[in-house]
Amino acid sequence: MAPAPIEIDHLTKRFGDVVAVDDVSFEIAEGEIFGFLGPNGAGKSTTIRCLLDLIRPTSGSCRVLGLDSRKDAVEIRRSLGFLPSDLAMYPNLTGRQTLEFLAHLRGGVDWAWVDELCERLDADLGRRVAEYSSGNRQKVGIIQAFMNRPKVAVLDEPITGLDPLVQLEFHAMLRQHVAEGNTVFLSSHTLSEVERVTDRVAFIRHGRLVAVERMDDLRAKAVRRLRLEFAAPVAAEEFLSVEGVHEATADGATLTLQYEGSMAPLLKAATSREVLSVESGSLDLDEMFLEFYRDEVAEAGADADTARGDAADEPTTTGAGGV
Ligand SMILES: Nc1ncnc2c1ncn2[C@@H]1O[C@H](COP(=O)(O)OP(=O)(O)OP(=O)(O)O)[C@@H](O)[C@H]1O
Ligand SMILES: [Mg+2]
């Protein structure tokens, strides 16, 4: 079996007293678009920098296509495309000159392919980098990451600064890239930013992996909202017992619901009456993202309480979720 394109194995990185990455392990499979999510300072860029051998792990290791990040860094670079979160570019070069310079460092690229990428992202390569808008800088960064048709693309916050139309095209580009047997690892601040494009996501907070989930599973778990308009007044209580329904409020003949999972039981219950209209709200993934982190805060608080309680009569123990 071919090795996983990316393996992070018990990775820990400390900066003095700060534990930026704390015993993080996960694997990304070939052909996946994998999202790495977390708030500011969570440890995303630090993990990525270790993976790229830009900094040295305190302990643990990373592998790319079965090769060790540290020992085989040069070989890895041939199959890898990388967009750093803080891409440095020469201000006096144009976008095209920047790409030519980077292509030269990599021993040449297929310019027809680079031109295709520019066209897709609607990048203006004629201007000097100093004159670029942040979105245009990001486009040049993305193009340089893909210009050698990498087996593995590692992108630190690629969507930052891209307008919605360019984001759509960028997502289509990523899908095409993985359909050709390649793999994409990208970081982001929110789930809603990447939910349309990622297959799986890992959540990191304070350097710790909170969860790794399939996007399909998260969608199924996400709370959805529904507004039903009936021909006659309804009682909310009748719907609270329906499978998947969390909340129900009635205002005359209007019923507002929150539910998760399949809509089928709910529709069955609703259509026993005369329904005038159904309005379905979108998945609230931003809320779900926040829930992941709120839960962690609550757990950390609970652990701290337990630790204080334990201290009185027996040795302090810290649970797996303790900080
Ligand atoms: N070179 C460094 N020296 C000291 N501390 C650092 C260094 N790099 C990162 N850190 C610290 O490590 C932690 C993780 O930072 P990191 O840049 O990995 O977060 P991030 O998830 O990428 O955040 P953001 O979304 O803001 O980019 C932070 O507390 C940060 O201050
Ligand atoms: Mg970062």
Automatic annotation (TrEMBL):
Q: Matching InterPro entries, A to Z?
A: AAA+_ATPase, ABC_transporter-like_ATP-bd, ABC_transporter-like_CS, ABC_transporter_ATP-binding, P-loop_NTPase
Its record classes its membrane topology as: Peripheral membrane protein
Locate the region Disordered: 304-323
Q: Which Gene3D superfamilies does the UniProt entry name for this protein?
A: P-loop containing nucleotide triphosphate hydrolases (3.40.50.300)
Q: Where is the ABC transporter domain?
A: 6-231
GO MF: ATP binding
Question: What does the UniProt keyword field contain?
Answer: Antibiotic resistance, ATP-binding, Nucleotide-binding, Transport
| Location(s) in or outside the cell | Cell membrane
Extract the coiled-coil ranges from the record: none
Source species, domain of life: Bacteria
- Kindly give the SMART domains that the UniProt entry links to this protein: AAA (SM00382)
PANTHER family given in the database record: ABC TRANSPORTER ATP-BINDING PROTEIN, ABC TRANSPORTER ATP-BINDING PROTEIN NATA
Identify its protein family.
Belongs to the ABC transporter superfamily.
Descriptive protein name:
ABC transporter ATP-binding protein
**Organism taxonomic ancestry:** Bacteria, Bacillati, Actinomycetota, Actinomycetes, Micrococcales
